[in-house]
Design goal:
Blueprint lengths: L14 H46 L5 H34 L3
Helix pairs in contact: 1-2
Length: 102
């Protein structure tokens, strides 16, 4: 029985080739992580802008419900708090690595 028959579309290579191929995947993983962080920052900014627009519309007296304004403000606040916690954890990790003795 051939393993390739079990999983269609996936090719198997010897261990030496797999080790050589993992060097490129680490760089791809870091790029994906950076892209994820950039996306989180962009989404947080978009939510902040959306909440500000809803607040301004409500203040100007345009037809918008108060609960929609509050929901958008809460979404923006929660997203910002998550971003700040991730930043704080990253700084803690950085400080911890600086304290490591070599």
């Amino acid at each position: 029985m051939v393993v390739n028959e079990l999983i269609q579309g996936q090719t198997w290579s010897p261990l030496i080739q797999q080790k050589n191929n993992t060097k490129g995947t680490e760089n791809m993983r870091s790029e994906k992580f950076v892209d994820t962080l950039k996306e989180l920052i962009t989404d947080t900014n978009d939510l902040q802008v959306e909440a500000a627009d809803a607040r301004d519309k409500f203040i100007k007296g345009e037809p918008i419900d108060l609960h929609d304004v509050m929901i958008s403000a809460q979404k923006a606040k929660t997203s910002f708090e998550l971003l700040m916690e991730l930043r704080n954890k990253g700084l803690d990790l950085y400080r911890e690595t600086l304290r490591m003795q070599v």
